[in-house]
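Assess this one:

_____
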Amino acid sequence: MIKNHLKTAWRTLIHNRIYSLSNLVGLTIALLIFMLISSLVVDELSYDRQWSNSTELYRMRVIPKETQEGFKNNSSDAPEGISAVMKTNFPEILGYTSINSHSRKLTVDRLSKQLAEISTLEVDSGFFNLFDTKIIAGNPKHVIAGAKNITLTASAVQKYFGGKDVLGSTFYNKPQEGQPEAYYVNAIIEDMPHNSSFQAEALVLMPKVVEFNPKETGSLKTQILLLKSTTDINSFSIKINKWYNGQKLNDWAKSFNLFIEPIKDIHLQSITGWENPMQDIYLLMGIAILILVLVSINYINLSFAHALKRTQQIGIRKVLGASRKNIILQMGIESTILFAGSFLIAFLGYLLISPAFEHYLEHPLTMNYQHSLFMFIGLLSSWIILGWLCSLPTALSLSKTQPSLELRKQLSFLKLPLNITFTKVLVVIQFAIAIVVAICMMSMRAQLHYLYSKDLGYEPKNLLAINYTSWEGKDQAFKQELLKNSYVTSVSLTSWTPFSGGADFKIVKDPNDPNKELPIVFVYADYDYIKTMGIKLLDGRTLSADYALDRPFTDSIHKGQPVFTNMLISEGTAQRLPFKLNKSSELLKNTPVGIFKEFNGASLKFPIGPFAIKANNEWEGGCMLIRVQEGKKKEAFALVNNTWNKFFPNRIAQINWQEDQVQHQYDKEKKQYQQLVLFTSSSMMIAILGIVAIAIYTLERRVKEIGIRKVLGASVNMITYMISKSFILLLLIAILIAFPIAWWFTHKWLENFFYHIDVPIALFVFTGMFIGLTTLAIIAIRIFQTARINPVNSLRDE
């Protein structure tokens, strides 16, 4: 019997090529997108679960006891050396390790005498006890005196040293600061897993362990603890914070508590900055679910449209003795063939697209369908089950409808005569989803255009920056050397650039609300900072060496009186705090002499806080900004590199174009937009297939009516307009449902940015009209083709 059902199903699908092809295309596209999204989500959720002790590993970090408005300082680290002290006090701790999460790239001379930049992590020997790294050669815990000990990964040996045996070799780095140091290769290990929060091509063993001193701030390091499996984390957190606050802490440490979190939460659920990484996963999961909803609705619609052609066939089979079970089984087998076929095509497409997809993601997928039998079988089983579920509405309708109705090309559903209302509801849902996604995509595009084109208050174009470095007393000579060239228009030394360096924070009481505190950002720069950054001065003057109080003072007391040096303040600072130009301020112990236009020194996701600039002319360490003449970027970049090598031949500099770094701030949002474009185009294709199905369904029911109207004199255009009106109503209902939902989603997404466009209502109207007109054009063509059929053929009954 199954063999007979298979033959019948195959012949039915072959005979109805348009129906089969429409379903196959929709199902394949939907499944392919679902496979790509789900493999990415599974990969993201797998981080740090591959370690044998993953359920007992925890990261300890400090979090502020109180958060200040407009200021976030959630560190991912804890005081260096604290883990060793805690292990002696708490038996729950079985092991620990410290990791320098701010490790820089190591630039060394490779065997080819060319420079190689190797990404590194500084770790202590406890790292190899907690994380089961696979050793290929050597001993990563073995320490050779007189050199820094480095463990290379297999890919680093192949990439930078041509696969040669470098175990026991010594190399010298080219540092950003200080003198070159010797690095001894003590071991070779397999690559760190891609789905690990601790990524590096090499591990550098820390030379010594710094003891924890609660009276001094000290440095912060990532602290990983191995706890007993029976440890109650909440109780343990209370215990360690009670101990921590009982130490003789300095003022900075008193404002923080210790926080314990599972290592498996670091990648997605650990919020140490402004963003929650899980939001991206929720977005991807939502897209995957929506694509399944859309394709399921589309399949049901096409099935009902196709069922009308088969009513007489099914009715005859029932008269001849076919049971309801046979009808349902027949429909289920047809569904299985279509879903299995789409799975095969989608899987082949997945194999072809995966390399390009991984290149787009900029990392390999650890978990994917071609390498995981569990994922492959799980998806195939779920996909076939979904196919059977989608076939049930039509199968039940065909099996329950009386043969007398079926022989007259009529169906019933849920014991009621099947009219077009049921499929209309499905089409409205389909189009509402498609319109919501399309509007969100267009709104995201408008916001991205705003981010890339907004006036930042300074000019990042043609602005080159040398990241924070040690100048060794050569800062002024370096600056003057650059200024000798005509295509360098201005150079400034500063403690901070939008993407490097540091600034001081001074906390003051908010004059408008004494219960609140305001962090004032102080940047130190030379007198050319305003000019080089391209910042507009609104009032007063810039800082100049011609004014004594513009210069930095090493002694803030003169003849028993405080010396108030001059500063520049931002427009927002002047508005929020009671400042007057050239009037000394007790609040900040300085005198403002100029007000500059507010500028965005960070992502537009964050608000601009009160900002001030003070002069400095002594640069033990700092950044440098170089303003380049238009059209001379290539020459200027070469000049800066050559000048650096002339002044610091044994060191390397990090040199970046500010414009590029501004653009890279929004790479995540750009990828979200690209993903939404793919989903929007796919959902629109599926939605159009669905509405074409309802058009076919409608025309199948009204083909004789159309023939009679033509006989009575109705024109093709008149018939096309008459039938199209019902579809216009469907689209209007879908638009009315979609607009409020799209507005809410767009509004919530835009809230991620402090500076953003208004919800683009005009864009809503344009998107709705475009989708509506495009869809109606496709439907009208189908109706027009049917309306042109000769009435002799349309009125003829089988």
